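Internal tracking record. Fields below are filled automatically when a chain is submitted to the structure queue. Please do not edit lines marked as system-generated. If the sequence contains nonstandard residues, flag them in the REMARKS field before resubmitting.
Queue: standard
Priority: normal
Entity type: single polypeptide chain
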Amino acid sequence: MVCHSCFAFLENQSLFYYPCCIRCGVDLDGYSAEQNQCSACLLLSPAFDRTHCLDRYDGVLQHAMHQLKYQRRLAIASAFAFAWNRLAMPHLDTPEATVLLPVPLSTQKLSQRGFNQTWEIAKRIQLPLSIEPIANALGRHHSDKNQVQHNRLDRQSALRHAFYIHPEALSKIQNKSIVVFDDVMTTGSTLHEIATLLKDNGARSVVNWVVLRALRPQTRIHSRDL
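SYSTEM-GENERATED OUTPUT FOLLOWS
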């Protein structure tokens, strides 16, 4: 459970109460906002159609996310799901979405960590009956490269062809509106690559649901194990 003080803070300060880019979820300012999109998305639109984020990466939930990912505190996934159910779901209008896919870890990384933190949160979310969560539709090829120091273009290059769709899941994706769930969004390169893959395989639209969003200016943060 999220403590009372943190939950109260999120009720008033979550990103749903601030102007954010409708495409990538980054915070907007008066100098870059146009058509509710940031200058980067206006210049080069990502493959996904929309992004919804609960809170900032450097906010009150950052430490809890680190404990979940690196200290194996799996109970914290329930707290994140509780916060998402109470604070994010009321803002989400997804009448066409039929599938929710978590961002995958590679088989090697999954074996090393023992769990996929994104799926641990996603499977606890109270979804509408119209949305089916599928744990293993997406796969990821293993890479030993650490992307923490890389900028957006470098990450996009490194992630090209990093993901794949399991053949048995293709029928769930074709001509469907897809929700992709992620724990942390930094540059957006991971979600762009996944959305590209999904649309290349027939998805009609792709919307991101993200727990924590790194906002401008980009600062060095912990790797999401790219």
